[in-house]
Amino acid sequence: MVMAGLLAGCDSGSGSGGGGGTLTAYVYGDDAVKIQEAAVKEFNKTSDVKVKLVPVPGTDYVNKLRSAMGSPSAPDIFYNWGGGSIKPYVDAEQVVDLTSTIKNDPTLKDGFLPSIVEAGSLDGKMYGVPMRGMQPVMLFYNKTLFAQNKLQPPTTWEDMQKAITVFKGRGITPFALGGSDKWPELMWMEYLLDRIGGPEVFGRIQGGDSSGWGDPAVLKAARTVRELVDGGAFGKNFNSVDYGNGGAPTLLNKGKAAMHLMGSWEYSTQLGKAPAFARKDLGWTAFPTVAGGVGDPADVVGNPTNYWSVNTRTKHKDAAVAFLKTMAAKSYSKALVDNGDIPTTSNAASTLDSSPNPQFAHDQYTMVRKAPSFTLSWDQALESQIATPLLTEISKLFAGKSTPEQFVTAMKAVK
Questions:
Q1: Using N-to-C axis directions, what is the helix angle for 384-399 and 216-230, rounded to 10°?
Q2: Residue 32 belongs to what domain range?
Q3: Distance from the first to the final alpha carbon of the chain
Q4: What is the pTM of this model?
């Protein structure tokens, strides 16, 4: 009975069933999954090998995938965040190296923005094909507050310090920050390190070199965080403000905070909570330069996109690649745009006018297209045994429970 169960599971997961066969694809089960459902339906119309989509509830996805990948019923294709999120599977030789496939196939090679494909790679090898919208971190601001105080969105650190001083003087918190959730604080460290030291510093860390935390740029970034906190840039109560329940976004749309560093999903969040504010008063710009920094001001951090990867155990690799190629289709891009997402395909610009906010869509797409580097969010780029203590140490730094020097020492010790 046990053997029969294992064989049945292997048949389901590897796609070795009768007829043309089946490819099982695990996907993050949220509202956007309807786009992938439609893509699967369209692909199955002409493919002998059929794709069976398995939506997994978001809160369960990571654990469900981990369990499945270690079982006979592992999926043939699976959704992921690239970087550290797939490293355990790459190390276990469970993920197909798609580097030569992508480079030798015009549809895959030319179909996506290079910085997006690169952001999902590991050790110079490509293991995923982009399949959802881009999510760069951007500096959002309240246009009315800036106009009332005769300020322009900051492009330099001096501009930002001036804005902080002006807004504090008016009793307005310069930056909303959901400190109780920890991960919003991570965005500050990500951009500061990029602007100060360039993307290569974190690249070393992501590559497994823990001594990279000792780079002088990391210490300067941590000290800059403390200067911002001590200078009142985030107000006095940011540790009790959340993002998930709308705390930080509400501060921005109610005019109690002037700016908010957040992923591009902030627009849709504001559209849902305060539609009039989102359409009229919500502005956005890139993170400013930092004096003395060597990072390119056009660099971006955030979640480049999500990716499809292929299990090495699949019996239908060619069909899996054929399905992945459909992610570059203009019709798929259009479906993402209509859902409020910004595709990562090279042809996306021609579809953006149908977005709920065409200007925001074009600005976001242009920002990513021109970015020399797109650094994946650290908590996704690093494996969990590093990402979890990282969030804890960053929270301690922001809360004043550790010094910048202690932050560096603590992270160098994490293996």
A1: 40
A2: 2-134+304-376
A3: 42
A4: 0.81
